[in-house]
Amino acid sequence: MTDVLDAPQAPGTTAPATVATYPADARGSGVATAVVARLRSPLWRPAAYYVASRIVILVTALVTGAVLPRRVVSSFGSVWDGRWYLWIAQHGYPHQLVNEGDGNRWAFFPAFPALVRGVASATRLSLPDAAAAAAFVLGLTATLAIWLALREVVGTRLADRSVLLFVCCPTAYVLSLGYTEGLFLTAAALGLLALTRRWWVTAGVCACVAGLTRNTGTVVIVAVVVTGVAAAWRGRALRPLAAAALAPLGLAGFMAYGWAMVGTPVAFLTSERFWQGQHFVWFVTPMEAVLAALGQGPGGLTFMPDAMAGAALVHGVGGGWLLDRMDREPSLVPATGPGNARFIPTSWWIYTVGALLVAYSAYFTDSIPRYTMAAFPLFAAFAWKLPSRIVGVVAVLMLCTQAVLLVPVLTTAVHPSAVPLVP
User: Fold this and answer.
1) Would you say residue 25 has pLDDT above 50?
2) Is 237 exposed, middle or buried (0-12, 13-18, 19+ CB in 10 A)?
3) DSSP sequence for 115-130
4) pTM, rounded to two decimals
5) pLDDT in tens, 1-13
6) CA 353 from centre of chain
7) 3-class DSSP state for residue 368?
């Protein structure tokens, strides 16, 4: 069915040079052969990286729970923002924009709570346990989706390294919590993969899901709409417009629902005022965080979150520069392309830059590092530049940092402090 819906638009159109093609007999009577060939893809490597990293996270939580109250270990599904998603899963959205205890449910998108409610109903798990289970599975699907998307553009070897860095990065502990990162990254990565292969309907559906998951979904929508309209214009074809039409439906539906319920289509933005009056800050938060960290030094009360926000800024700017250098690298350009060709699709640049801008517009510094993780193409840039012999060492060091950061995330949720380290 996907083959039929996402077939190339113009007769005689060939696949991009970086896109893997399958033998002609993989269609029609050879469909089973194609399915078997795809199942033999080396997906076990990214899956093994992810599972190994989650074992480290689980062991860290168990050790923390042995020292502190046992609630720490069981709080994966309800820690920090997770409690808001659970509240939505249980009760839905309120009929008014009011303060519900330093926040409001309308600030959170509905896709993940709906999924948690479905998992709980199907498995008879409690909502917190269902959220934790869903987060684990979605973390795996996100890892595999990112690997598939990266392999399509940069090849298997670099995709392996990139995913290793991704699952080990210091903020990847969030993949084990009842948060939206797993669902969003699954939809975003599959959407970019679909755009690369010109699977227009699939790309539109993925953007629709991303738009129902979190505000960064607007970046996926823009990438799909721009790519679809441009392809329709160049090829004089209608099918790419299907992607452009499908992409915004999820976000538009949520906005229409908010308009009907509380009288504004941007309830997810308006409700943010209940969090200490947070608002759009024009990307200045990470820069202010760098100055604050330098001014107060390691002994400062907010030094850690400020330093991490500054590190996220360096990660984005430095990674973007490396990604541009990699895009210009002649040895990586497909042999069939012109000498000055670039191989990273425009849709990837739209998504990466947009994801970073959304991350840097956050009001709270401690949210910026994990938001920046959404710009997963940057991991390919760092993996490209890192010497092979030290990739494993870097991954282990980052994973240890991730485990260390998880401890205050869990313990401050059980024993709230005045200034949380990394919520």
Assistant:
1) no
2) middle
3) HHHHHHHHH---HHHH
4) 0.85
5) 433 334 344 333 3
6) 13
7) helix
